[in-house]
């Protein structure tokens, strides 16, 4: 039977339209949230996040990336809707066979559009990120 080993979370904001953080170019990946978790040998970590983003110009393409210890483990792409439309993104990911120890988990976002100047977006909230270590 699985056992909960540790729980971690990071909440920048729980409401929509409560922040306005520009999503930058791919080389300037923006970390939105982070936390640490203890794991056991061959354990798993269930990660869940909700992010709201808004198109500010054009039709941006953004990439949300989940990291363990600074290394990408999962990413999801999203395209903007009409100007000023807010789009909520929900991500759930099971990080399997995590090495035993204490790990830093973070959530990043970058603008992956071909023309960044004509396709812009911002994080508007909510921004929540949590994890449960299971052994």
Q: In terms of topology, how is this protein built?
A:
Layout: E1 4-13, E2 21-22, E3 30-39, E4 43-57, E5 61-68, E6 71-79, E7 86-98, E8 101-111, E9 120-134
Antiparallel strand pairs: 1-9, 2-9, 3-8, 4-7, 4-9, 5-6, 5-8
Protein name: Exosporium leader peptide
Organism: Paenibacillus borealis
What does this structure look like?
This protein has no helices and 9 strands. The chain starts with a strand and ends with a strand. The relative contact order is 0.41. The model has no long low-confidence stretch (mean pLDDT 92). The chain has one domain: Sandwich (Jelly Rolls), CATH 2.60.120. The protein has 135 residues and is mainly β. The strands form 2 sheets. Strands 1, 2, 4, 7 and 9 form a 5-stranded antiparallel β-sheet that branches. A hairpin with a 2-residue loop joins strand 5 (61-68) and strand 6 (71-79). The protein has strands spanning 4-13, 21-22, 30-39, 43-57, 61-68, 71-79, 86-98, 101-111, 120-134.
Beta strand count: 9
> Tally the helices: what do you get?
0
The helicity comes to: under 10%
Low-confidence stretches: none
Major beta-sheet overview: 5 strands, antiparallel
- On the 0 to 100 scale, the average pLDDT is 92
User: What structural class should be given to the helix and strand makeup?
Assistant: mainly beta
**CATH architecture group name:** Sandwich
Portion of residues in beta strands equals over 45%
Order of helices and strands: EEEEEEEEE
State the end-to-end distance.
Answer: 9 Å
CATH topology: the name is Jelly Rolls
Q: Domains counted in the coordinates: how many?
A: 1
Rg (CA only) = 16 Å
Shape: elongated
The first-level CATH class is given as Mainly Beta
């Amino acid at each position: 039977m699985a056992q909960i080993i540790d729980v971690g979370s990071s909440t920048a904001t729980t409401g929509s339209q409560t922040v306005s953080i520009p999503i930058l170019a791919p080389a300037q990946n923006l970390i939105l949230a982070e936390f640490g978790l203890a794991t056991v040998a061959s354990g798993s970590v269930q990660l869940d996040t909700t992010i709201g983003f808004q198109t500010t110009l054009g039709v941006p393409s953004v990439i949300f990336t989940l990291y363990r210890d600074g290394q990408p483990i999962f990413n999801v792409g999203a395209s903007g809707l009409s100007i000023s439309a807010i789009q909520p993104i929900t991500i759930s990911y099971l990080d399997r066979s995590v090495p035993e120890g204490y790990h830093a988990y973070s959530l990043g976002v970058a603008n992956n559009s071909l023309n960044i100047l004509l396709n812009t977006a911002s994080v508007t909230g909510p921004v929540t990120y949590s994890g449960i270590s299971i052994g």
